[in-house]
């Protein structure tokens, strides 16, 4: 059963401008494992983080670094949540995350599903 769904888009160029103009923003938004990725990949991961918040009902206590996208050997993205994100997912009965990321025309798109099995 799906207990949460979120979708978001991120303008790649706009994110790049914000990262350049705001000191410390890259460190605040992204985990150590994400920070050095190309801008297009960062935009996709930012869209995932926003989608996670929406799937969890957008509670105000979520932290950006508590949702991390890692790449499996197959190339498939996998979502790892910790802290308040993990606690909120558990409170909703969520046990499995599904994530899809796409890039086209300068836009990164992400869809996140939280499933209870």
UniProtKB/TrEMBL annotation:
Annotated Mg(2+) binding sites: 8, 50
Metal-binding listed as a keyword: yes
Cross-referenced Pfam families: ACPS
Catalytic reactions on record: apo-[ACP] + CoA = holo-[ACP] + adenosine 3',5'-bisphosphate + H(+)
4'-phosphopantetheinyl transferase domain segment(s): 4-108
GO biological process, one term: fatty acid biosynthetic process
UniProt entry keywords in alphabetical sequence: Cytoplasm, Fatty acid biosynthesis, Fatty acid metabolism, Lipid biosynthesis, Lipid metabolism, Magnesium, Metal-binding, Transferase
Top enzyme class: transferase
GO terms of molecular function: holo-[acyl-carrier-protein] synthase activity; magnesium ion binding
GO cellular component, one term: cytoplasm
Annotated compartments: Cytoplasm
Enzyme Commission number(s) from the entry: 2.7.8.7
Cofactor(s) annotated in UniProt: Mg(2+)
Chain's role: Transfers the 4'-phosphopantetheine moiety from coenzyme A to a Ser of acyl-carrier-protein.
Stated family: Belongs to the P-Pant transferase superfamily. AcpS family.
Cited HAMAP family: AcpS
Protein name (database record): Holo-[acyl-carrier-protein] synthase
Organism of provenance: Janibacter alkaliphilus
